[in-house]
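Sample pair:
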Amino acid sequence: MKYSGYLFAAGAVFFGIVGTVYAIWSRDWIGGTALIFTGFMTALIAFYLLYTAKRLDNRPEDDMMANQDEAAPDYGFFSPQSWWPLPMGASAMLIAFGLIFATWLLIAGILFLMISIIGLVFEYYRGDFAH
């Protein structure tokens, strides 16, 4: 966790310097302000990670002599052969088009999204991969 905190701290310094130089050199105050605030947000993440790293024990990433199997091996189950994210993305596209063009597209997108979510959640309750 310390290394990730140091990485975000380096990013905060980078964005602060680049934002300041960009704002002065190009006289584009909006872009410079956006880059400087990106540095501030990155500094917040760096502060949180470094502050949390002080209070917790070292993680396997921080130990130079740690083995690979010391890290937590189970991060959850992710379906490698699922097709349901594709209709979910198409439904999100329909919802976005519905917000822009017509209400009936929005309603159809929400309906298809609900069907896609149900299909994704209950994918492993039926068929060849049932548990």
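Residues 95 and 109 are 5 Å apart (CA to CA).
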